[in-house]
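The passage that follows is intended for readers who have already worked through the single-chain material. We present the inputs for a multi-component assembly, then the predicted structure in tokenized form, and finally a short commentary. You are encouraged to pause after the input and sketch how you expect the pieces to fit together before reading on.
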Amino acid sequence: MRVPRIDIIGAGISGLATAYYLARHLNQTEKKGEIHVWEKDGNPGGLAGTFSTQDFTVEKFYHHIFRRDRALQELLSELGLAGEIVWRPAATGAYYFQQPYKLASPIDLLRFKPLPFVDRLRLGWLALHARTIKNWQSLDDISAKEYIHKVAGANVYRVVWQPLFHGKFGSYADEVSAAWLWSKLVDRGGSRNAQGHEVLGYVRGGLGQLFQALVKWLRNSGHYVHLGQAVRCLEGPEERLTSIVTEEGAFAADVIVGCAQLPELADLLPQTVETYRQELRKINFLANVCLVLTLNRSLSDFYWTNVTEGNAPFVGIIEQTNWAEPEDFNRKHVVYLSAYVNPADPRLQMDAQQLLAYYLPSIQKLFPEFTLKYVEHNATWQAAYAQPIVHVGYRHSIPAIASPLANFFVCTMAQIYPHDRQLSNGVALARQTAEIIMQCMFSG
Ligand SMILES: Cc1cc2nc3c(=O)[nH]c(=O)nc-3n(C[C@H](O)[C@H](O)[C@H](O)COP(=O)(O)OP(=O)(O)OC[C@H]3O[C@@H](n4cnc5c(N)ncnc54)[C@H](O)[C@@H]3O)c2cc1C
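Having made your guess, compare it with the prediction:
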């Protein structure tokens, strides 16, 4: 009898972690199953993938790990990589009205001059208030704007939060759900040390090590990871998928797990399931553009700086080497300039040179001494589906892991909610997905 196949679309954290937990379940229960992971890119990792310069290897899009990211830390540990996590305090700042402000601890909040003193207290109270709330579902019925207005006042929203939401969600800023804000406030609080400073982790040598280790583990366990091999389409009648068509050929389908982004999965599914395809398209996304500069001197004082000026073309300056150990980056200075943009934004088509030229006046406005002589290397990375728009009532738009088709399952970052699309939450979702698939495949 043929061994049942499980085909997984995408070798980001969702796809590879689902494959890993499925393979472990198969081993433990001595059930037969052959896992195939299909990845269109030549390298695994998706949004958390890495690239190399002559000096270091680093994520294409900035990544850090929170202390409470347990599922990811457990996975790293099981793969023998726990010793590669480096924990360091990371200072956060923000540019308001073209002035830099340190915003790394509660004391910094009390010194935050753009707000009157009473509003600084209200800003701090917001985080404390969020931690008293246990039922996040009720928060999902109101916007973050409404919640902040109620708990901390209009001034706190206008001066601090609205510019941040605008940076991340653009014209959708006022529609962001209060449940999403709640999880941000609660989760970030959990990463602070006794002095109130945030301690964050990174994987020395980049997260690519995690993905390579997962690929190696799966292959050593008798499964398959097909890199550089896109899935072209899925076929079948209304009730189940019958085949998966890949660049390597078409294969009869037993179980298929969609771990690419939701709109990509909707495009792959057959027209016979048009209603379900529309369901998957309910969630909209913003794209992200990151310019990664290797500099011969430091740019800012902080690891993370939010840029809140409405007309700035980037919203985050993330200076990796103001947090990471200098030796891990050959003592170079690595800076990401990040922007969340709509699909039609011209920055999605620019190469690194064009993007640097486009950003140069804005960089020099914030750092007047900056010249192109600082720049030793530049790279740019674009992701079409980088951030789901977490609107009010988002919980009602999330597709279930088990789809209406008997043999199709979905595990993607857009299903992580109200918590943010942290890798660790992706690992936890993958673990849950593997359990559901095992039950569906082998019960009865
Ligand atoms: C700017 C930015 C910063 C972030 N910062 C952090 C952070 O600090 N900490 C943190 O924990 N998380 C962070 N994240 C979130 C984290 O990167 C994501 O949650 C996670 O990587 C999503 O993984 P995924 O596997 O669900 O999706 P992806 O990583 O998007 O993986 C999907 C994969 O599917 C592949 N694919 C698509 N279509 C096909 C097809 N037809 N055939 C085959 N393969 C296909 C894609 O190539 C891709 O590799 C950040 C994300 C962004 C965008």
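Commentary: Residues 9-15, 38-41, 46-48, 61-64, 230-231, 259-261, 264, 268, 288, 338, 383, 386, 412-413, 421-424, 426 surround flavin-adenine dinucleotide (CB under 6 Å). Residues 234 and 269 are 5 Å apart (CA to CA). How closely did your sketch match?
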